[in-house]
Design a protein that fits this description.
The protein is mostly helical and 91 residues long. The protein has 3 helices and no strands.
Length: 91
Amino acid sequence: MTHTAVRMDKDLKDRLDRLASARRQPAEDIVREAVADYVDRAEKRDAFHQDARHAWDRYQRTGLHLTAEEADAWLARLEAGEDLEPPACHD
């Protein structure tokens, strides 16, 4: 494991210390958990945005798409328990 220093204002440090005391765990464990949670969410958000950019680029190249109504109808059937492929995209 490596070490990283984090600067924080006094109010945040006090809050962290109170939380650590209440949980009876080291403040560094709470910081490590918080950073890991943040990085996980940020990576998922970045992947979502990248997927959206790729989908937009693909749409720009091909013009193929589904309407909102077509997508909603397919999702409703999935929710109802049907196991089916997504509808074919069209222009």
